[in-house]
Design goal:
228 residues; alpha/beta; TIM Barrel; eight-stranded parallel β-barrel; 10 helices; 42% helix; 15% strand; EC 5.1.3.9; carbohydrate metabolism; isomerase; Putative N-acetylmannosamine-6-phosphate 2-epimerase
Length: 228
């Protein structure tokens, strides 16, 4: 997909992240493909999935697919190397999501080198999952097509907010020109609306839509609190 076409299709819309953690009952590409199809039926403008098999399972959906590959035990584990990024693109992702922080990467490449290497390999767009304003500025300078707030609160540069980091969205919107994808702790529809008002081009929601274990625990905790 061309840059303008993909961005236009996502602008003002909802990206639904369909992921299950290792060992969970839903950790199966066929299941995630079914969840993605259900999200699409509900009006999702895009789908985000993790893992090569999951990407292949949804690559033919009629919306942009954001693909990533979580791997390794280091701080940088979201599509951590150029080899991972190329594999994600080869699996059929329209947008390759990579760690967009300034932290050292497992293969020793810089973010700019990773983006340049991916550009030489594919015409897929590149989304940088950032944790701070400095990350976003560096990612844009390195050539990222989209800037995500995915890692806000998880890298030590910003506090973990209750809900999306609206301040970070506003800061990035004031400094950068690339479209912002609000991601991370978007748990309610009003959170998504607030993220768009803060300057996001689109919003990505995962847990609050596609993770029944967490959703169940929210209700269980609420009931336990009432009983106490």
């Amino acid at each position: 997909m061309r840059f303008t076409d993909t961005i236009d299709r996502l602008r003002g819309g909802l990206i639904v992240s369909c992921q299950a953690y290792p060992g969970e009952a839903m950790r199966d590409p066929r299941t995630m493909a079914q969840v993605a199809a259900a999200a699409l039926a509900g009006g999702a403008a895009g789908i985000r999935v993790q893992g090569i098999d999951d990407i292949r399972a949804v690559a033919d959906l009629p919306v942009p697919v954001v693909g990533l590959w979580k791997d390794g035990e280091s701080d940088v584990f979201i599509t951590p190397t150029l080899a991972h990024a190329r594999a994600v693109a080869d699996a059929g992702a329209d947008i390759v999501a990579i760690d967009g922080t300034r932290r050292p990467r497992p293969d020793g490449l810089t973010l700019a080198q990773t983006i340049a290497g991916l550009r030489a390999h594919t015409d897929a767009l590149i989304m940088a999952d950032c944790g701070s304003l400095d990350d976003a500025v560096a990612a844009e300078e390195a050539g990222a097509d989209l800037l995500g707030t995915t890692l806000s609160g998880y890298t030590g540069e910003r506090p973990k907010t209750d809900g999306p980091d609206l301040e970070l969205i506003e800061l990035i919107a004031g400094r950068c020109t690339r479209p912002i994808v609000a991601e991370g702790r978007v748990h309610r529809p009003e959170h998504a609306a607030a993220a768009l008002r803060a300057g996001a081009a689109s919003v990505c929601v995962g847990t609050a839509i596609t993770h029944p274990s967490t959703l169940t625990s929210w209700f269980v905790d609420g009931i336990a609190e009432a009983r106490a």
